[in-house]
Amino acid sequence: MTQDELKQQVGRAAANYVLSNVAHGAVLGVGTGSTVNFFIDEVAAFKDRFRGAVSSSNASTARLRAHGFEVLELNDIETLPVYVDGADEIDAAGHMIKGGGGALTREKIVAMVAQTFVCIVDESKRVDLLGAFPLPVEVIPMASAAIARRFVDLDGQPTLRVAKDGSTFVTDNGNWVLDVHGLRIPDPVGLEAEVNNWPGVVTVGLFARRGANISLLGTKEGVHRID
Ligand code: 5RP
């Protein structure tokens, strides 16, 4: 199976999960990325089962609307039973690195509100130790060099993310992203707390304090569910 076929397989499994576990009329929390795109496409046929969706990025909002989903503001929602999102790495405890698509801040906000975080990944994302994937960190632009120096002190190699056209990548929130290479992260909860405290950091792409509750792992042998 190709990686896209594995992603489609978990996207379909996540659609089945929400159809079986989320009450009619509930609001769906929707993440960002190529795996989530498969989920959106799979669940779209059942959109009338939901009051609408809360989205974590402009890209997912556009895809949801193209399928006819109503996209609601998080401020208008009090409860969100399920949030479905991908990850760049996930460990056995459900700690994740996220933000490869640059949507980490809104993803963390929506995940905070959700009762259950369902992480959908192909098996290449499953790791024993986080850090081989460069850690994304959304920063206020004027703080980027100062924050980069702090990561160098931790033996990381930060690079400023560049968009496809060669310009500096700008998030949906108007900020920049540092991708920090070369980190080994044995204590993701501790590093998340530390980096969160640095002035100028908007969001660190470690989702450890609030990790995934359920992982759906796409493998050649089928989808494995890890609770
Ligand atoms: C976006 C994310 C994505 O969930 C993560 O990058 C995985 O993406 P993909 O499903 O395309 O591999 O965190 O900010």
List keywords for this structure.
4-stranded antiparallel sheet, 6 helices, single chain, 6-stranded mixed sheet, 227 residues, binds ribulose-5-phosphate, alpha/beta
| Beginning-to-end CA distance, first to last residue | 25 Å
Q: What does the main sheet amount to?
A: 6 strands, mixed
Give the strand tally: 13
What is the global morphology? globular
Q: Strand order within the widest sheet?
A: 2-1-3-6-12-13
* Derived structural class: alpha/beta
Strand residues, percent? 25-35%
Low-confidence parts: none
Order of helices and strands: HEHEHEEEHEEHEEHEEEE
The portion of residues assigned to helices is 25-40%
Quote the average pLDDT: 96
Rg on CA atoms, Å: 17 Å
Bound molecules: ribulose-5-phosphate
Q: Helical region count?
A: 6
Report what the structure shows:
The protein is built from six helices and 13 strands. It has a six-stranded mixed beta sheet, with helices on both faces. A four-stranded antiparallel beta sheet has the order 8-9-7-10. Strands 4-5-11 form a three-stranded antiparallel beta sheet, with helices on one face. The chain is 30% helix and 26% strand. The protein has helices spanning 3-21, 34-43, 58-66, 104-113, 144-153, 188-196, and strands at 27-30, 52-55, 80-85, 89-90, 96-97, 114-122, 135-139, 157-160, 176-181, 201-204, 206-207, 214-219, 222-226. The model has no long low-confidence stretch (mean pLDDT 96). Helix 1 packs across helix 2 (34-43). With 227 residues, the protein is an alpha/beta fold. It starts with a helix and ends with a strand. Residues 31-35, 85-88, 98-104, 107 line the site of ribulose-5-phosphate (5RP). Belongs to the ribose 5-phosphate isomerase family. Catalyzes the reversible conversion of ribose-5-phosphate to ribulose 5-phosphate.
